[in-house]
Amino acid sequence: MAATGTVTARKAAWLDLDAVAAPSRAAVAGVRVAVACGIIGIWEALSASGLFFGDVVPSLAKIIPAMLGLLGQDVFWTNLQATAWETVAALAIGAVAGVACGITLGANEFLRKAYEPFLYYFSPTPRIILFPIMIMWFGIGIESKIALGALASFFPIALSTAAGMRGIERVLIRVGRSFRASGWQMATKIYLPAMRVPVLTGVRLGFGGGLITVLLAETKLSNKGLGYLVMQYYQRFDMATLYGLLIILFVLAGVSNALIGRWERAGR
Question: What is the predicted pLDDT for the residue at 80?
Fold first, then answer.
């Protein structure tokens, strides 16, 4: 019995997350640097191995100068502006629609049970298969990319907002109703402040989905944008510049996501 109690106590201590010491920033930074160095080492080894045809895997000695040269060209900044505008517009539309839908479903039990399952069913659907429909509805300009990106952003934001509504303390809702707050006042004064973190989590997910969808749409049918630029370098087989552009995209997406994440953590 004593041995069993000791084993149980050890398991309980192991499962107690609060008892686990938080890793130091230096340790976390060290792991990140090690991973980055490992990726670079593997890339350089593949580049020097001769396993790939031509410059399919160019060395960083070629990618970095090509990337720096790309940053000095007006064509990059023009196309970056187009993609940024499409992504921001798509995220704004998707966020407004998603928050409104999430609040509506979260505030009404009947609507939640009736319609929220549809969000879960259609959320995993790849948006790019709807691109031909968006082209027929909105044309081949930026409007179709924005519409497709907004659709991709909508689902995670709506689902996260609906989940956040269910986590609001009921006493806050009763206080708002006791003061006879209108629907708009309840949304702006009670709901949104109480579920800031879930909403921003949905925005982070919506931003990623919207950006990916916009870039994919630009590779299919467009004459501007970073997705269009990727296809141009691919067709020219300018692989060094192509990889440099992809690195820039990863950095921009990571920085944008980190900024939203910092805003999210500030609300905790």
Answer: 93
